[in-house]
Every structure is written in structure tokens, then in C-alpha cells.
Design a protein that fits this description.
Layout lengths: L14 H9 L10 E5 L3 E6 L13 H19 L4 E6 L8 E8 L4 H4 L6 H10 L5 H7 L18 H13 L3 E4 L3 H19 L2 H9 L3 H5 L11 E2 L25 E2 L6 E7 L4 H20 L3 E4 L7 H11 L4 E9 L14 H4 E3 L2
Parallel strand pairs: 1-11, 6-7
Antiparallel strand pairs: 1-2, 2-4, 3-4, 5-8, 8-10, 9-10
Helix pairs in contact: 1-2, 2-5, 2-10, 4-5, 5-10, 6-10, 7-11
Amino acid sequence: MTDDATRSVDLRQHAEEIAQAGARAPSHHNAQPWAFRVLPGAVEVHADRSRRLPVADPEDRQLFVGVGAAVYGVRLALAVLGLRPVVRLARDDARPDLAATVMASGQADPARAAEWSHDADSAADSAADSAADSAEARRHRELGRRQTVRGPFTDEPLPSSLQAELASEVDEEGAALYWAVAEESRRGLAALIAAADREQRADLDLRAELVRSVGPAAVRRRAGIPLDSLGRAAAPTGTEVGFAMRDFSAGDPDLGAPTHRAEADPGIAVLHTKTDERPDWLRGGQAMHRLLLAASAAGYQASFLNQPLEVPRLRDELRRALGLSGHPQVVLRLGRPRDPLPPPTPRLPVSDVLTIAD
């Protein structure tokens, strides 16, 4: 590419699109605990602790996993501009909520930059199409398509080739993926999920926090989980292993979700990191989002089975039971949705999460 074909890009000119890409990340109960500050040549990603869930996540581990996922969305936004995103994870006592800075390295292809519009969906498609269908472009297209699907999947097993591909995606981010394939490991994991679910349903403070994250009141705040996104699979009745989906109703019949016949063989994976500090949570979030977008591009979606990771003794037991070399950060259930996808979960207005530097 010649010098005439490249130019420097002021990221502030694309601030809304960058923030929208970051804000499409998944987060714990769709709390959206992030904020973006766009500078001429970099994007700061901050944690918004006003959106933390202190009962379920007292150490903010899951909060920073979600922030890490937002960092990955910012990376994709810069990549489709023709830039090379370089991430520096931050730990500055003077700015404790600054999680990462994503710097724009290199020059941008103006043909790509010109494709951006202020409509997030058309921006995703046009920018990605102009990027020669690179891996980043394919993942960027999925930002508005990936969804958490709590309803049933088809009985089609997850292809081993896809399992290998997703493990490779996670490995590229400095994390690792454990596939629960053997019946013994699946039964053990299912038992831990069920035990955590029972314990959490008996916790009145946790139930109250959960209810605040679900239903019309939460949606009016442009966060949380709508009722029509709560579909959950029933436990199977035969010899199949049943994985307990989180009960968001907390005993409230108005929040109850219909049950369905469970899929026969969902893909179950545990994403883990070598150590268990804030940088690991941020790396784990980037790896999780990359995996979810790659799965979505292949026609598969996921939901979360993180209940045992929210109970410290069960998180330790899960690690020992599966023989993990690292620390579990996310438990995923993956498959091809049986029903039409639910409407997308709400997102905060971009003005609420974006600051543009002078």
C-alpha cells in the first residue's frame, strides 16, 4: 500500500461507532459496566463500578470479564478501520477504573474508513465487507448478531472441528478452553452447577439483586434482561446429563420462564486463565467475546452456566474436579438454537458510555 493510499485517522471522528462496537459485549446480567474515552490515537476502556453486582460478584471478577469483552469489541472496531489495535492493560492507582488502553498502530486504509456510518448495523456490514472478509471483519459483523440464548438448542452435537477452532481462538488471547466431553466430567460439572443454583436460590440478598436485573424495570433503564430472553431448557428425563439454567424468577411467577425439552448433547466448555488477577479477568473477557463471535459466525450461540463460579468453595471444587491447570472464569453452554432468536437485549445510549477527549 502506498503512502497516498494511507492516512492517519483521528479516532474521535469514529467515536460513536467505536463505543457502539465495545458496548455490544456480553456482561454479567447485561449490567454493561463500562465506559469509553476516545482520544485521537487511542481508546481508554474504563470500568463503571456504579453498575457492579456486589452480592453475586463481590470481587468484581465478572465485572472485569465483561469489561475485557468490551475491549475486544473496541479492537475489532479499530481493525475494520485498517488499524492494528495494541492493548495495554492498566493498573494505575491514580485511575483505578481505567482497565485498558487500546492504541491505534499504523496507518488506516481510507477506503475502509470512508465506509463508516453512524448506523451501527450498516457500519458493521459495510466496513467489514471492505476489509476483504478478514477474520476480524467476520467477527465484527457478528457484534450485532451474537446473542445469549437461554432457550433450547437442537440435538445436533457441536462439531469437533468447531471445538478445536474455538479452543484455538481462546488460546490466541492467552487463555485456555476445557471441553467437557467425557460423561464423568459432564455429570460432575452438572452436579456443581445444580448445587450452586440451589444455594443461590436460598440467598435472599442474591435473589433480590437478580430480580433487579430482570424484567420491564431493568429494560426501562436500558440494561438487564427482558422477560422474553429468559427461556430456559428443562432438565432431561432420560439418561442425558442435565445442566441447570439459572432461575431468574427468584420465586416470582411473573418472571417465570416456560420450560422446554432439553437438547440431548449441548457443548459445554470452561474458559480458564493461568492466574486469577485483574489482568487475567480482562484477558479472559477478550477471549470469551472472541469465542462467542466465532461461534455466532458458524451459526451457534451460547448461554452461561456460571453459578458455581460465584460460590468460592464450588469454584475451587470445579477446578479440582476437572483437573484444570488454571482458574475458571466462564462456563459456557453452546449449540445451534432450536427456536428463533429472542430480541436483542437493550443497550445503554451511547452518550451514557462515551466521552470524547478534547
